[in-house]
Amino acid sequence: MPDWLTTAAYTIMPWFVLVTRMPWIGVMVQLLLCVPVVMIVHRIGTTLLQRLSASLPFSRRLVQYGHRAGAMVVFLLLAQVILRNAADSLPGITAARHFSALALIAAMTWLGVRCVRAVSHTIIDLNPADSPDNLQARRIQTQTKVLGRTVMVMIILVGTGTALMTLPILRQIGTSLLASAGVAGLVVGFAAKPVLGNLLAGMQIALTQPIRLQDVVIVQNEWGHIEEITGTYVVVRIWDQRRMVVPLQWFIENPFQNWTRTSSDILGTVLLWVDYRMPLDPLRKEAERICKSAPEWDGRLCLVQVVEASEHAMQLRVLISAGNAGQSWDLRCRLREELLYFIQREYPEYLPKIRADIAETRNAGG
Q1: Which residues of 335-349 are buried (b: 16+ CB within 10 A; e: fewer)?
Q2: CB within 8 A of 141, min separation 6: which ones?
Q3: Residue 324 in 3-state DSSP?
């Protein structure tokens, strides 16, 4: 026998004996060999898909978000094939197959969540809300975020349920509960009412859209913007930087004001009290001049009317229009300040006064 053949035989013999006496070694070697193979295929496949999807925003984002989860799914699928082909007599093979199946379910759930997130982020990027006329973009962003979170929650629930159903003890518990399905259904229904209520409310808000991101709303007498819509609650950014957290279901069951439901333009009012002798024509001209010089005015409306008359003075209402709620607030403050300054400068004697008649009483015997 040649020397090289003898050397090879002595080299292979210990490994052959080791594999024969420890059958898990063969399975472990196959699993370890899968790692570099999957890494090489993952690297080449990811590079190729990135080049092919360079001009396709959805496909490019799917590759960017899901390539790691996809590599994990491929490796666990190969592991499942190796473990299923292994001998049933291997000690611990059943537990290894079960653990591999659980890991595969978790990886597929992760891949599903990443894909939904990729699609959601792509739609949001394609519809930016930083333009002046962003009504359509805000509607699309609201639908995308709410529906995306709902789908991700459903994927996680399905993955978790599938993983739990692989456990024999839970299958037995489930079979026992099905025997008393009526009582169990009531218990589960009452327990899941808040979760299901918010989930259904989120889907209803996404489809009907009573609120959208960046909408100006009045909630419980607080003025603010819709900052965030999650799967269970809405964050309202109040004008003084506070945050109000409101459950989704509240917006379905309670009335509230939405100042930007169909458009962002809005009317504002300025109320002034003046003396009855105050001439209105100069005040109307001054209000028009202030509005025309104000950058917040949209040019639609500037109207001065007498809306109230008391025993001491009359109340004027200046009705103005602006492009959005923030500009309306600034325009109202500007108009109020400059009209008061105009009255103080030109007609100071016509500011509100309290009149009183003083009757002189004489002593009849004096």
Answers
A1: beebbeebbeeebee
A2: 123, 124, 127, 129, 212, 213
A3: coil
